[in-house]
Amino acid sequence: MLLTLEGLDGSGKSSCIDALRSSTAVPEGAVFTREPTDSWYGEAVRRSIADDRADPLAELFLYTADHAAHLSGTVRPALERGAPVISDRYSDSRFAYQGATLAGAYEFDDPVAFVRGVHEPWTRPPDATIYLDVDPETAAERSGATNKFETTAYLESVQENYERLIEQERERFVRIDASPPEDDVVDQVIEAVGTLL
Fold first, then answer.
1. How far apart are CA 115 and CA 29, in angstroms?
2. 69 with 123: CB under 8 angstroms?
């Protein structure tokens, strides 16, 4: 099974992943991973995030290259040997975030559909996705708004894209309210993961 955690910056994904690593809800041998990866592709993505002048379309393809390498080097090999994979961010982040970025820079009729179309012929969709739901203002405050993807206005567009993705695949998403204290959110995520796995 490929299980992903998604949500706005500041929603608590990384804290939940840290808790899951030591949780009995996760089978032994599970592979924990993330996007952007720690590869040189992921490093290129992080450099682009830090550059306010980065072209959004070029940035999309950096993310896409990182995703392709992630699939071939980590996700598919783990799934083929029967290990569950838990990823902190995955393709839905790209659909939601790069969809929002492209909407402000290019004349795409439907930026989210464009990004999905780039991935559709070759990606491996998640089997289940936990979506940590928090309002954009809280997300920006928690994340510290340290880069161009963490402002309230931008995160509002991202949240709209996530809602659209959820509407299209309700059976795949498990929505968890990420506004309560961190420990409460972590407990809910561990319970959900235990049920899914």
1. 32
2. no
pLDDT (tens digit per residue) in 25-36: 999 999 999 999
According to DSSP, the β-strands at 31-34 and 128-133 are: unpaired
The terminus-to-terminus CA distance of the chain in angstroms comes to 8
What pLDDT shows up at residue 133? 97
Distance between CA atoms of residues 131 and 168, nearest Å: 14
Position of tokens 């790209």?
94
Work out the pLDDT band at 145, boundaries 50, 70, 90.
Answer: low
- What is the CB neighbour count within 10 angstroms for residue 20? 23
Is 2 in contact with 127 (CB distance < 8 Å)?
yes
CATH annotation of 2-196: 3.40.50.300
Lowest mean pLDDT among 21-35, 59-73, 142-156: 142-156
Average of per-residue pLDDT across 8-31: 93
- What is residue 144's predicted lDDT score, i.e. its pLDDT? 73
Residue 6 has, within 13 A of its CA and on its CB side, a CA count of: 27
Mean pLDDT calculated for residue range 138-152 = 78
Measure the CA dihedral 16/19/25/28, to 10°. 120
Rounded to whole angstroms, what are the CA distances from 130 to 7, 43, 126, 150, 178? 8, 26, 10, 20, 11
Decide: 89 and 35 in contact? Cβ < 8 Å: yes
